[in-house]
Fold this protein.
Amino acid sequence: NALSRELMAALEEALAGITRDPAVRAVVIAANGPVFSSGHDLNELRAAPNREAIAEIFRHCTQMMLALVGLPQPVIARIQGVATAAGCQLVASCDLAVAADGATFATPGVDIGLFCSTPMVALSRNIGRKQAMEMLITGQPIDAETAVRFGLINRAVPAAELDAAVAELTRTITTKPARVIAKGKGAFYRQ
């Protein structure tokens, strides 16, 4: 579940369609397998011919993350596994997040000579400064319980209860007026 250019483009295209669809009341970002998102596709980054090409990948990622924030519908991250680097940014860019209690979160770029500067923005808007710096400069993963305590996710539940917890949160949201939620979400991010 690496954030390749192809995956980011597909997600951005889907979000553009959702923006115009009043029947969609909430969006759940979910993944299959043991990893929620490993962040950028490192093979794609290594294959980039120059710094400009790498910068373009990061710009595309930023644009996709901003599309999540700009979506009028609430976006819930459903995290069943590891969320690292830009995958952690993806979690932080969603409005709400529910994780299985075995999920982990990290910004380990520092371990391979890269600072997670794009994930840093969303991360620092979600959690305290000291906690963000610790994650960014140590690269050490945090567990779901710590992610709740830091404010990165809303709740951690047993893995067997993850789908039910996400469904309940979604149901609660969809009982509220969509217009009010869209206006409120927009105001929240503009403040």
